[in-house]
């Protein structure tokens, strides 16, 4: 199974970020992390990386309910940016609203919708998808 180099977590909940990062470290899920508190921070930091050709995240774990710019707004802007590297995006949310789960189907660059919390089993599924 190939190792994921860089995982990006976009989530405003510090407890979730801490827990997800800890579980990923224990599972030897990836080599490093990028963490952003909302979609705007993520876009402001990822866009220059995309444009310069520097290393991009292999996987983005994206919350949808965040202040300033939510996950849906982030996706709408992110898909407009030209990118030569495939980035696998997972929505990771506490929302069990069927409308949110259905809405994810409108984004072909989103691999799956994961309901929080993240578990080691969830990470194994993501890693299998990535391999």
Automatic annotation (TrEMBL):
The record ties this protein, via Gene3D superfamilies, to: 3.40.50.2300
Which superkingdom heads the taxonomic lineage of this protein's source? Bacteria
Query: Which residue intervals define the domain Response regulatory in the entry?
Result: 6-131
Record keywords, A-Z: Phosphoprotein
Modified positions (4-aspartylphosphate) in chain numbering: 63
Q: Which InterPro entries match?
A: CheY-like_superfamily (IPR011006), Sig_transdc_resp-reg_receiver (IPR001789), TCS_response_regulator (IPR052893)
Q: What is this protein called?
A: Response regulator
Organism of this sequence: Winogradskyella maritima
